[in-house]
Amino acid sequence: KKQNNQWDEMFRRLVSYRKLHNSTVVPRDYTADPELGNWVRTQRCKQYPISDHRVNLLNSIGFVWNALDNQWDDMFQRLVAYKNQHNGSTLVPKKYKADTQLGRWVSWQRHSKMISIHRIERLESIGFVWTARYENCARVFDGKWMETYDRLVAYKKQYKSTHVPQTYSDENTDIHLGSWIKTQRIAYKQGKLLEKRKDLLNSIDFSWEGKRGPR
């Protein structure tokens, strides 16, 4: 019972933090309440599973289970805002005075070899520019696309179909093939899919309409 009271008290403190900061991502070095930052990290830790009731309570206030994902999403939205303010451009100067963090973040996205396919697709969906100046990153981007395409080719050989369920992922490579397929279809319908990629997909009789397939 004492532990329940302690949890409820920390939850109330998180609710108060959210009202004040419009966020449930408590910094590690939050000096106003260091205990709260540690508690939030404990809730995310898989070593300390919590009850469904508590999960529901945390979800009800928009609890962020992965702080790194939240930070990336925040920067992505700032890039979208930049694009809206600058005639559709995503070319943020590295030393952009109005938001120096955004400039550095954009540069990092272009150079990073660790960026996921999902994030690359999200950036491309808003017209993110992989310029010649960042040729190495462009090669990484193409390489990631081709790696997933190769998994689709293997999937078709196994199942005789390109109808991949959205929830399907490749256990051996951690490639979320189902989500990638959906992204290709959306890009195609919006006229944003590169011709060379469309040709590659057509070469394996890719189905541009979604349909449940074998798992």
Automatic annotation (TrEMBL):
Segments forming domain Helicase-associated: 4-63, 69-128, 142-206
InterPro entries: Helicase_assoc
Gene3D superfamilies the record matches: 6.10.140.530
Protein name: Helicase-associated domain-containing protein
